[in-house]
Design goal:
Elements lengths: L1 H6 L9 H20 L22 E2 L11 H4 L14 H5 L9 E6 L5 E4 H4 L6 E8 L4 E11 L2 H6 L7 E6 L19 E5 H5 L4 E6 L2 E2 L9 E3 L12 E7 L6 H5 L23 E4 L6 E2 L7 H4 L13
Parallel strand pairs: 1-4, 2-11, 5-12
Antiparallel strand pairs: 2-3, 4-5, 5-8, 6-7, 6-11, 8-9, 8-10, 12-13
The structure holds the ligand Nc1nc2c(c(=O)[nH]1)N[C@H]1C(S)=C(S)[C@@H](COP(=O)(O)O)O[C@H]1N2 and molybdenum atom.
């Protein structure tokens, strides 16, 4: 479907600017007509995004890389958050419409104590840590971000998962009143992603509530989003409202939109090209020269054992 394939072509890989322009025009036309009823196109974000509130008492973490940080400005203005539009600057322009308080997160499925938590309570589950992670988008750009959060595994203790919990499904908010592009079939909404239970329970898997010492900017997935640093960025679902522990492998929004391009695992792997471009290299936001992409995004030592015996070309 044209409207879907257009959004995930990395701008850097476009060789035919004319074709790109036509596709963009098509998307915008479709978006405009979908929006015509009821939802006025938002005015440009009033002023520069407000810097967020600081978290007190942030601990340092052992799960941190010693690399040059990507500037706050780049991390918060070059985003993928399709609920707010397909262009990199759409989230920073439109995400001010997101109401990140009050906010609840429902935890259900294969758990002894399904519950809906207020975000304020979720943030008390564990001490907040600063973790500097590499983050690699499937489109070929990457960044190094000081996230604030705690390991997802803390959640299991709260809800007592059963032995039937083999996978975890993460569901993002899909509210057309706040998110204009939820009226546009760019993806199958709500945005859904999934992990195998052992991937979810790995200490590197982070529930992030902030970055650069501050509450999460809305364009980066306020109030709480996932970060799975050894996988392509799309696994890291934003603005999570539901976490489901399930028996069967979830079908993510990206698997539904293009199964031949986006598999369930989506581990960063320089040796397995995306069907339309290589994954051997990446460009750090703000840098000119490309660098080599590392297996598991540089986290092989920590996570490769999770995939022992698996054919990672087939399980991409
Ligand atoms: N709900 C939701 N989550 C999402 C996305 C999205 O469009 N919607 N985009 C994904 C993709 S493709 C990437 S690369 C990262 C981008 O995170 P960032 O904007 O904080 O860099 O968010 C991921 N999580
Ligand atoms: Mo991405």
């Amino acid at each position: 479907m044209l409207i879907k394939s257009a959004v995930d072509i990395p701008p850097s890989e476009i060789t035919d600017p004319d074709l790109f322009a036509r596709r963009r025009h098509f998307i915008q036309g479709a978006a405009a007509s979908a929006l015509a009823s009821g939802f006025g196109l938002p005015a440009l974000a009033a002023a520069a995004p407000q810097r967020g509130e600081k978290f007190p008492d942030i601990r340092k973490s052992q799960w941190t890389v010693d690399e040059k940080l990507t500037p706050y400005e780049s991390v918060t203005t070059y985003n993928n958050f399709y609920e707010f539009g397909p262009d990199k600057d759409d989230p920073a322009k439109h995400a001010h419409r997101l109401k990140s308080r009050p906010w609840t997160i429902t935890v259900e499925g294969e758990v002894k104590r399904p519950q809906t938590f207020a975000i304020e309570d979720v943030l008390k589950w564990a001490p907040l840590e600063e973790r500097i992670y590499r983050f690699r988008c499937v489109e070929g750009w990457s960044m190094v971000v000081p996230w604030i959060g705690f390991s997802f595994s803390e959640i299991a203790r709260r809800v007592e998962i059963t032995g039937n919990a083999k996978y975890v499904e993460f569901v993002s908010l899909a509210d057309a009143e706040q998110m204009p592009y939820v009226r546009v079939p760019l993806l199958d909404w709500p945005y859904v992603e999934g992990l195998r239970i052992d991937e979810a329970m790995h200490p590197l898997t982070l529930l992030a509530a902030g970055l650069y010492g501050e509450v999460m900017p809305k364009q980066n997935g306020a109030p709480l989003r996932l970060i799975v640093p050894w996988k392509y960025g799309f696994k890291s679902a934003k603005s999570i409202v539901k976490i489901r522990f399930v028996r069967d492998m979830p079908r993510s929004s990206w698997m539904k939109s293009a199964p031949q391009e986006y598999g369930f695992y989506s581990n960063v792997n320089p040796e397995v090209p995306h069907p339309r471009w290589s994954q051997a290299q990446e460009r750090r936001l703000g840098e000119f020269l490309k660098r080599k992409t590392l297996p598991f995004n540089g986290y092989a030592e920590q996570v490769a054992a999770l995939y022992a015996g698996m054919d990672l070309r087939r399980n991409y």
